[in-house]
Amino acid sequence: MTQDVNEFMESLKISESLKDQLRKKEYAVENLRRISRYAVIDKNIYYNMCLSITDLEDCYVSEIVDLIEEKIVINENMLNKCIELAQRRKCGEKKGALADYVRSVSFDDHKLKEAAEQFDNLKELMSHVSKDDEMVFYDPKRVIAVLKGLNVKSKKIERKGILNEGKLRYLHKAGENPQISEEILQEHLKRTNGEIITRFPPEPNGYLHIGHAKAMYLDFNFGNRCILRYDDTNPANEMAEYYESILDDVRWLGYVPWKITSASDYFDELINFAKQMIKNGSAYVCHLSTEEIKAQVQSPYRDRSPEVNTALFEEMICGKWKEGTAILRLKMDMESKNMLMHDLIAYRIIEKDHLKADKKYHVYPSYDYTHCINDSLEDITHSFCSREFFSRRASYYWLLDNLRVYKPVQWEFSRLNISNTVLSKRKLNALIHKKIVIGWDDPRLFTLRGLRRRGVPPQAINAFVEKIGITFNDSIVDVRLFENIVRDFLKDRQIVNVIYDPTEMEIEGQGVILIDGDDFRQENTEGFLRLTYGQPVGLVNKCAVELINIDNGLLKVRQTDKTFKSRIHWLQKDLQNVKIKVRELSHLFKSFNPEEKDFLEDVDPDSMLIVDGLCESRIMDVKVGDVVQFFRKGWYCRDEDENGFMMFNKTVGMKK
Ligand code: ATP
Ligand code: MG
Description:
It contains 23 helices and 25 strands. The chain is an alpha/beta fold. Among the domains are: 5-106, no CATH class; 109-150, no CATH class; 432-494 and 578-653, CATH 2.40.240.10; 498-568, CATH 2.40.240.10. The strands form six sheets. It has a seven-stranded mixed sheet. Helix 3 runs parallel beside helix 5 and helix 5 runs antiparallel to helix 6. The radius of gyration is 35 Å and the shape is flat. Residues 93-113, 115-123, 125-142 and 149-155 have low confidence and may be disordered. The protein binds adenosine-5'-triphosphate (ATP) and magnesium ion. Residues 201-203, 211-212, 214-215, 231, 385-386, 415-416, 423-425 line the site of adenosine-5'-triphosphate.
């Protein structure tokens, strides 16, 4: 035996008697050394293997080592099973497990292919197959050959915890979503190389809010690539400001879009598809009013000829028809129980220029018409959306099959609702227009801008959406859960002393300091534990004091050894102290669920109180956007100065 092998045996840290046994089995050691080169299994497994193989014949050991080298055996379980099989074979027991195996090799390649398709990588496949199918232990080369033929990706997507839970675990893998023809699928796979592609599709008609953070969590973490796609099909609502803020907010949360696109990038394609549908008799120009359409009457224009429809649609495109006088509808199924199959609107006239589209169209595509086609054109594998889109699945698939194009899978999750606030852009807009809040970035709002201005770190937002998970059931998450998470992310912040309503306190024989007016009461009230007559208080890093009397607002106290119930902070009476302004913020709405009634009626008028504060001079070093802890008060974020004062927004209070 060579020195080399002895060294290797040393490194295994196994007992002397085991080493002795191994030395008698030259090949075993040689094989073990081979394993070590591949480092696919850990020391424990080596050890286990050493123990077991001492009574195995070398040829079996080699076979097992082959499996390890090929990365077919990747964990201890599999190894044990291998050894067990080999032992049985040695005993001549060719029935039982081995008989099953013999049957399993008669599985044709097709079966293997089927299994392989369910997995993103070899390792996962193998660990799966090994659970109930012993064939992998026998003929790994064949397994691998089949897998190679399939071009199975070894690139595994490391999904975070919640993306591996519940229904998400069972979502299809790339290439598994059914298409009307195999050709469509193969073309799609060729373009995507089997990658998982998702998109985050905000409409640039407002700022993003924490609900979008939930959608982004799923869209950006689920697959290999995520497209940021502006869903900009209605120029009446969209503004340049929103395109910019959305991208900025996406980046602030730490996401990097693989590509940035807009629905309007595809206006030409969308028009061409519409013309194609008119030609094949699946779309028609209709002149019913909105009310008539809502009443679900069958359109009298349904059976116009493709030629007439083509001519009318051209007229709509170039502005010959006025807004509201003509629409293009899809000829779907008026008998369907699903109202969204009742001849959806594909195009309507909007007399407004689009911000981004370079060609002037007078017609604009509807959400239902656009979204699925955009998803298809971008080869999206999983089109995640919130639950209200569930009933739109049917039309989504109907349309793409009608166009004979690639069909993604739409999958819905529940919208995020948070207690004591509203999220929908329509409601946020109302609050802004009525001047109930300062703007989209009012620090009481759960817009990403508001949260940023309030000092909430983006990591806390992501941790929060991760914590609540991706579910299908709608619920309202208690805002206090969010606040707890925010606190966790602010633990390490600098602490400064700030007092409100500075009140002078003269300590007998020592001098005058300042305390927070709220830390003292003339008359004791139940539950009040700080300074009052007959109730001493501790001064942080100083002594305890008891109240003697109040002289013209000056609290006269003396040092005491008596016990006290709480400790308060204080400031030196010092010219260097800085006057600041603080926005003391609480929940914007009084009710847990402000949407239950008229949400505007539920606004808490005291949700933002501006308070004067006095602070030690260290506060001057705090920059705009920085968060510090005001001792005993909570965490506060510096905002832009107001009227020459440093301004702070309360991020979150101390835990009660
Ligand atoms: P809003 O009602 O706030 O206007 P929206 O759905 O119209 O919401 P979009 O900009 O169209 O907003 O949404 C972009 C993506 O974000 C969509 O996939 C949408 O489903 C998702 N989304 C919007 N609000 C929420 C929410 N509260 N929770 C989870 N996802 C949301
Ligand atoms: Mg919308």
